[in-house]
Amino acid sequence: MKKYIPSDIEPKWQKKWEEDRLYEVDLSDAVRRQYILIEFSYPSGDLHMGHWFAFAVPDILARFRRMQGYNVFFPNGFDAFGLPAENAAIKKGIHPRDWTLSNIEKMKQQFKTMGASFNWENEVITCLPEYYKWNQWIFLKMLGKGIAYRGKALANWCPNCQTVLANENVEAGKCWRCGTEVIQKQVEQWFLKLTEYADRLLWKDNPIVDWPKAVREGQNNWIGKSEGMILDFDGVEVFTTRPETTDGATFLVLAPEHSMIGKFTIAENKNDVDSYIKQVKNKTELERKEGREKTGVFTGSFVKNPVSNKEIPVWVADYILMGYGTGAIMAVPYADERDKEFAEKFDLPIIKTSFKAKPQGKQKVNYHIHDWSISRQRYWGTPIPVIYCDTDGMVSVPEKDLPVELPYEVDYAPKGKPPLATAEDWVEVSCPKCGKSAKREVETMDTFVDSSWYFFRYLDPKNSQQIFKKEVVEKWLPLDIYFGGAEHTLGHTLYSRFFTKFFHDLGLISFEEYARKRVNRGLILGPDGQKMSKSRGNVVNPDEQVKSYGADAVRLYLAFIGPYAGTVAPWDNSGLNGVYHFLQRVWGLADKIGSNLQGNDLEARRMMHKTIKRVTEDIEANKFNTAVAGMMEWLNYLSRKDQISQDEYRTLLFLLAPFAPHITEELWEKISQKYSIHQASWPVFDEKSLEEEELPLIVQVNGKVRDVIMIQKDIISNKEVIEKKGKGSVKVAKYLEGTSVKKIVYIEGKVLNFIV
RNA sequence: GCUGAUGUGGUGGAAUGGCAUACACGUUCGCCUUAAGAGCGAAUGCCCAAAAGGCAUGUGGGUUCGACUCCCACCAUCAGCACCA
C-alpha cells in the first residue's frame, strides 16, 4: 500500500463530507439527543492552537455520540461584536462590519481544515440584525419588568477607550484592551438588575447540574452574600454582620462619597475634609488597590453609640466603599483588623467588646455583586432600543420597529462622545408616542449580552417572528455538555445563568439551568512553557502543523497531551511526531489483515473487547488521553502478530474514527469499499469475552508484594486451596521460613496477604 | 487574607484502597543505510559492577492486612477574588 500522506486525503474527505451534509441534524427528533456546545469564538481572523484545542477535542465526543446512535447537535458561530473590530477599523481604516465578516469567512475556512463535524447550517453571528434584534427584544422585556433600568453609579472608566468597563474587564487596574489606567467616575448608564437574581444564582451544596466546584464556589464568592443588620447612629445608617460587637464601636467611618459628610463636617475641618475627598477622587483604581496604607480625616463631629451611649467621632476614609452596604460603618477596632489598623494610626480608642450587645435595627442581606452595567459608549455593538423625547421622556422602541439597525456610516474614532451620536440622520427620529422629533439612545450593549443566550438561538437561528420556538428549546436544552475556558467563570457563564432564569420567569422556558454539565478546558502553552503570545514569539501555528503532519495527527496529539479538563501543558513537537508515527503504523497495519478472527483465539478477542470497553468509557468521562493510550496498547499488541483479522482492524478503525476522522475514512473505504465510517455503529464490547480463565493473584508477606501467581478461575473462592498455592510459591516461601503465620488475609481474586 | 485546584521518572502523564511509574516523548545501545533522516529491535525511577536486596508518589503523622489513593497538620505551586464591614 502506498504511503500515508495526510495532505492527499484530508481535503478530499472534508469536501465530500460537506457536500453530503454528513452531520446534518434533524431537530424535530430529540428522543436520543445530545446538545454538545463549545463557547463560540471572537472572529479575530486567525484560528490559533487554542481554537484547535477548544474545538477539535470536543469534536471527538460529538462524533463518538453520533456513532453511538445519538442525534447530535453541535453548532458553531461567532461572537462578532466588540472592541477589536472597532480598534482595527480606527487603525486600518476598514469598516468594523467588513473587517468582522471577512474574518468570519477566513476563520470558517480554517475551521474546515480541522475536520470537525459542526452544524454550520445553524450558525449564529451576533453582529447581524437578525440576531441582535432579539438582544433588543430581551432588553425591552427586561425594561418592562424593571430588570433593566437607567441609573447612576461609580464606574470603571477607561479614558483612552472613552468607555465604561465591567470589573471583569479591569486587569490589575488597567483596561484589558488597551492597558490604560482605569479611573473611577460617576456615570449615568444602563443596568441589568443582577442583584434581584443574586439569591437564585447562588449554588446550593448539591446542585442538580454537574458543574465544577471551582466554578460554583467562584460564583458564590463573587455574589458574596452576607447577612447582617442595619443600625442607626444619630441618623447615619451602618451595615454590620456583627451587631453583637456594637458596644465596642469607638468611631464611625463614612466613605468619601457619602452624602452626609457635609452635614457632619465642622467649619474648621472643612478644608481638610474637602482636600481629602479631592485627593481620593484623583486616585486611579490601581492606586486605591495598591495603597493599602490607611488614610482618613476627622469631620469634627460625634454621634452617639446606641449601646454604650458614648459619643464617638465621625471620620471619613477610603477603606470604606460607597458601593457596599450603606457606605458607612461602625468601627470596632477590638474585633476587626482593618478598624484596628485605622485606630492605631489615628490614635483612636480600642475597647473590649462583650460580644453580647443587642442593638435595635433591621435585618439586612447584602451582596458583593452589583447590578450589571451594560452601557458601552462604542459603535460596534447592539443599539439600545430607546428614544428620548422632550415631551414623553424616555420611550421604548415599539416591538414592531425592531431591530433598531446599527447605521453603517458613523465616525467611530474616540472623541469623548459615543460614535453613534455622529450619525445624525439616524439619531433623529420621531417619538413613537407623540410623533414629535426625538433622539435615539446612542449607547450600545456590552457584548456579554450577546453571548448570554446564543445557545438558545442556535436551535432556531432563522426565526424572524420569535426569539425561538418553545417546543424545540424545551426538547433540546439544557445543554448536555458545555465546554469552555476557566476565564468565563465569573462573566459569561454567570450571565447566561441569569438570562436563563429571566427567560424562565417570562414563561419562555420551564428550566432554570442551561447546562447539565460544564467542563473547563486546560491550556496549551508555547514550547517554552510560557503562554503563547505573538510578542514572546512562541506561537505554534496550527496551519503549519497541519501541513506537515495532518489534521488527524494534530487532533490526536491535543487529545493525548493530558486530561482535557485543566491540563496546562507545553506544546511539544516531538510529541506530535509520536502520534503521527502511531497513525503511520495504523496505516501500515492494513497489510497484515488476514483471515477472520479464530473463535479459539481467546486472548485476541479479550484484547479487542478490553480496548473497546476502555475507549468507550474514557471518552464518556472526557478522558481522551487514556482512550488514545488504550488504542496504542492494542496496536502494540496487534503489531507483534504476523496476521490480524478483518474484525480487529475494522474495530480499530471505528474506535479511532472520532479522533482521526480522515485517515479512518480513507482506510475504511480501502478495506470495505463502504462510506462513511462516521455513520457506522460504535462497537459494543462483550462482557463474556473479557473473562479470563486464569487470573493473576498478588501474594504478599506483611503487605509487601513477593509474588504474582496465576489462579484458575474455578478455585477463586476456595480460600484453603489459594492459601496452599500461595505458600507453594518459592519466592513467598523464602519469606515464610522460620516464622509463624499469624493471620491470612484473602480478598477474592485480588490479593493474598500472609501476616507473620 | 479568603476560595478553589494541583504536587508521581529527565518531560507530558497513568493508576482513586490491592504488582506505582501504563501510554508517549526524550536519552543510550544495536540493526539497516554510501551518508543523513526515517524505520526496526533492546534498555531506561533511584542506590548497587551485577545479582540479591533496599529506597521512592511534596513533608510529617494517622486509619488499614495493605495507602499515590482515605483522614489530620504543614509546605510549595498555579488560578480566581480581595480594605465587602
Overview of the molecule:
This protein has 756 residues and is α+β, with helices and mostly antiparallel strands. Helices cover 36% and strands 19% of the residues. The protein has 5 domains: 6-126 and 448-521, Rossmann fold (3-Layer(aba) Sandwich); 137-193 and 372-445, no CATH class; 226-366, Valyl/Leucyl/Isoleucyl-tRNA synthetase, editing domain (Isoleucyl-tRNA Synthetase, domain 2), CATH 3.90.740; 548-689, Orthogonal Bundle (Isoleucyl-tRNA Synthetase, Domain 1); 693-755, Roll (Ubiquitin-like (UB roll)), CATH 3.10.20. The chain has 26 helices and 29 strands. A 4-stranded parallel beta sheet has the order 2-1-22-23, covered by helices on one side. Helix 1 packs across helix 23 (661-672), helix 3 crosses helix 4 and helix 19 crosses helix 21 (624-640). The structure holds one RNA strand of 85 nucleotides.
What is the secondary structure topology, with strand pairs?
Blueprint: H1 6-19, E1 33-38, H2 49-67, E2 71-73, H3 83-92, H4 96-112, H5 129-144, E3 148-158, E4 163-165, E5 170-171, E6 174-175, E7 183-192, H6 198-201, H7 213-223, E8 225-233, E9 236-240, E10 251-254, H8 261-264, H9 270-281, H10 285-290, E11 297-304, E12 311-316, E13 328-331, H11 337-345, E14 362-367, E15 372-373, E16 375-376, E17 386-389, E18 393-396, H12 424-427, E19 428-430, E20 437-440, E21 444-445, H13 447-450, H14 454-457, H15 470-476, E22 481-484, H16 492-506, E23 518-520, E24 523-525, H17 542-549, H18 551-560, E25 568-570, H19 573-589, H20 602-620, H21 624-640, H22 646-656, H23 661-672, H24 687-690, E26 694-701, E27 704-712, H25 719-728, H26 730-736, E28 743-747, E29 751-755
Parallel strand pairs: 1-2, 1-22, 10-12, 22-23, 24-25, 26-29
Antiparallel strand pairs: 3-4, 3-7, 5-6, 7-15, 8-9, 8-14, 10-13, 11-12, 16-21, 17-18, 17-20, 19-20, 26-27, 28-29
Helix pairs in contact: 1-23, 2-18, 3-4, 17-18, 18-19, 19-21, 20-21, 20-22, 22-23
The chain binds one RNA strand of 85 nucleotides through helix 7, strand 9, strand 13, helix 11 and strand 25.
